Each structure stands twice: as structure tokens, then as C-alpha cells.
Amino acid sequence: MASWNPRTEEMPLDELRRLQFKLLKSLVYRLYSFNDFYRRRMKEHEVHPDDIRTLEDVAKLPFMYKSDLRDGYPDRIFTAEQNELVRYHVSSGTTGKPTVVGYTERDIENWSESLARAFSSCGLGRGDVMQVSYGYGLFTGGLGAHYGAERVGATVLPTSVGNTERQIELMQDLHVTAIACTPSYLLHMGEVAEKMGVSIKNDTDLRMGFLGAEPWSEQMRGRIEDWLGIRAYDIYGTSELSGPMFTECTEQQGIHIWGDLALVEIVDPATGEVLEAGEQGELTITMLQKEALPMVRYRIGDLTAIEEGTCACGRTHPRIGRIRGRVDDMLIVRGINVFPSQVEHALLEIPEVGRHFQIVVDRKGALDSMLVRVEVSEEAFSDKITELMVIKKAVEHRLRSSLNVSVDVELVEPGTLPRFEGKSKKVVDRRSL
Amino acid sequence: MEKSYIVKQISIFSENRPGRLAAVAGALRDAKINILAFSIAEADGFGVVRALVDRPEDAHRTLTDLGFRVSFTDVIGVKMRDEPGGLSDIASILGDAGINIEYAYAYSGKDAAILILRVDQVEDAVRQILDRGGELLKASLSR
User: Fold this and answer.
1) Is the pTM of this model over 0.90?
2) Residue A383: which of B42, B68, B71 has the nearest Cβ?
3) Where is the AMP-dependent synthetase/ligase domain (chain A) (predicted)?
């Protein structure tokens, strides 16, 4: 697909790196000179802006964490004055106290530009109708996707989340061609549509989806694409970066992170050491052009790896692979690291069970126990107990071999596991230590 | 011929927890569907409710709409002499013919005891039982 901003998106790599260095250098000088928080942090860390002599020297700068935003609540680490701000967003606070993010006019501009590049790399443009089924309001997903889609000339249908039957009616009536929502919500929509007698594949014009805000797998993509007859693209961002900012292109070979806006590093979650391209670790981002809240070496907590080399689409900016999970929602069961995404990955290869699951971790005596609850699919349901037990054992075996930890499987009635319209919470950890 | 004796049983997947049977039974009551015979098979954490009802198609739709996983199974209902040896007669006929009984449950009908059987070769079983003078429930009992 043609680039929205070819001069930047297809910039030769060495030129891009020179641009990144220039932006980093001036950012660090600006922060050191005009912001107490950053100056104090850099002094504690014994680093001065003059120490930044190459792009790699970014590794000399201290990390930032979500706790810095919380400690600075609501706006103490902002680098713009209140009268320069045009918007606030506030995180959901799923993992603690909410955090506030501020935006200058230019921050909003760059956010929209970032998504305009991303959406057009998947072929979204004038003539498309984009249904934005991310939440609007304090959450960044809805308004972020909204501005990005408007920027490329698409018609936006701001449905937000919920009232699913109406969403499906509108999808048909207004000939929606693209949707932005969580993968769980799209699955939910597909199920609701089927109950209404509507096949998203055959009865709508939907042809692409920008799915994110929760980890999902390649198998899930395959299933969504086959079932709904669309191309499903991974979209990425968090409120601390602005909101959703980056997507895959039509090659579906990693998420393009625009290097002029964000400098990506992958670090070892335990040691903070910078890892090589291709190695899995914690995504760490420096926002090079943000005015209100730059975020330097921000440890996002998402686990992924950088993909090397120019993309087949011709864009030179670095890509990241699928998010494998989060440093903080990783479960440790009997000393083994378990990510919910691994469970999903394994389950999607078993046709006898449905798309939804729930993990329940408990401690019996001194030992952790892990239970995975799955719904029996319609095709697999037999009135013979023995056949159902075979399915249960097969799922247990499959999970044990892919997670390296023994798992009990419980077959539950269809539709009883929680469906999520926003971020899914698939883990119930009942252990108290 | 054999087909007219093959009865549609509905089978319902149910979690093994309080209230589930009440939900199934309540739904059938509300739809005014009569249960003629039924049994529960239980396993680890779940069970399968099996029932003969007067309107199987309606029962299937009603329960599916409520979100239950429901399937149809072909079974036969054999009239048994309600006295010692009744079960033995029928089991011997099927045993002699090499037909395996996968599961069975019985209920006391209006004029005879009825044995509901799920077998591996259903048409064969019907033929054998009729040939040996046995009596079967007509499928028309459950429309």
C-alpha cells in the first residue's frame, strides 16, 4: 500500500538513525534544562546530556516506570504548562491507581499522523467506513482510532463499545468496511451476529479490522480472518505513548514503530540490559517528539522482540513482533512462567473447544494448581461421557506439553465464560501468599 | 419400518453444580414440554442429561436458545415384562445378535416397564427385537 508520508516512512535507515539521534539529543537537553523531574533523575543516575554522543547512548539514560506517573499524579512530571494542553486522557487503572496523560496540540497532531500512516499502510482511506468500537472517553482507544481514520479520509462511525446488536445493524446498513476494537469484542460481535442470523463474512462489507488493547495470537488471527472473511491487523499503543499509534502493514510481518516518533529498545526484564534484535524482552520506548509527557526509556511491561530489516512493503522503520504477554500478568505456576497467550495459542489448535477460556490458579497445600475452563464446541458435544472425557484429557495433555506444567481442564457450558467488551481478564489468581 | 421405532432422545451438556437441572427442567416446564423418561450421567465436573420428551424439536430449540449445548441421539424404547427375567429377555436378544448396549435407563410406563437403549447398531437392534417377538415404543410417541 502507498505510504501516507513516503519521505519519512521509506527514509533510508542511516538517515532515520541520524534523525533519531538529533531528536534524542535535543529532547534530553530540553528535559535536563527545563524539567525538575528529569534533571533530578539524570543527576541521580550520573548522566548529563553531553554524555549522549551516539544513538546507542540512549542506554545511559535512566528508565521510567508506570510508578513515575503514579508518583507524579496527576501532572507533576508534565513538560508543558496546563494552558498549552488541549486534552487529558486517564488510564483505566487496571493494575493500580490511574495515570493521567496530557497532550499539546502538536501531540494530538503527531498521534493522528502516526495512525494515519499505520491505517493507510493497510489500505484504509477515502471511501472506507471505519467503525470505532473501542471505548471513547478517558480511554485512548476510541478517540485515537477516530482521529487517525478521519485523517486518512475514511468516514468514521463512532459506535464505542456495547449495544452489540445495534452495532451489527449499523455495520450492515452503513456498509462499514473496517473496524477497530479488541479481538475479544470482535469475536463477541461475530457470535452475536450469528445469533441474529447475520454472517459478517457474507452479509457485510467488512474487510479489515484493527485489533488490539490485549494480547492475541497468530492462531486467533487465522481464526478471525477465516470466520469473518476479513484481514485482521494488530494495533499497538498504550496511553503513556498517547494511545494506539502503530499497526502492521498488509504484509502482517510485525508492527511498524515510526522511528521519528518513538525510539524502541528491547531490554531484559530482570537486568534492564539492552537485548539484540530478535531477542524477546520488555518493550522500552522513548517518545522523541512528545511535548506534554515525553516518556524517556519507558518500560511498558509488554514482552516482544524487534524484527530486523526493511519490511517487504518498503518501509524502513523498525517493527516489533506480536506481544507475547505482559511482564506483570505473567503467571508463575510451580516455578514455571505461564502466559495466558500461550494457553490461548494451545487451545486454538483444538477444534473441540471454543474460543473462550479462563485460567484459575489456586494453591492446594504448598502446591500451585492451575485449572483451565473451556467451553465444549457444538460439533464436539456428544451424549457419551467417554467421548467428553477423551476431549478433556486431550486438552489437558496439549496444555501440559506446551506449558510444561500440569493443568486440570474443566468443560463448561457454552456462553458461561465471561465475554469482554474491553480488555479481557482471563486469569483468576486465588493464591494468597 | 425400523425407522418408525427409532426415538429421538435429547442430550444436554450440563455443569455439575446446583441449579443446572432446575434450569433445564424449568425451561421444559415453561415450554409445556412433557418429559417421558430421563437420566443423568455424571463425570468429573459435568454431566449429560438425557431425556425423552413429547416434543424433541421444540425442546432442542428451547434449550439451545437458553445457551445449552444440546444434541439428538437415536435410541429405542423396549417394552419389558414387569416381572423377573424381563430385562434378561431383551439383553439376551441383543447379546446374541452381537449388538452392544452403550447405555440404558428404564422407566415404568403406563402399561409396561420401558427400557431406553442406546446401541451401536440401532436398526439392527429394532429388527432383532421385533423378530423375537419383542415390543418397541413407537417414535410417534415423541413427535
Assistant:
1) no
2) B71
3) 79-285
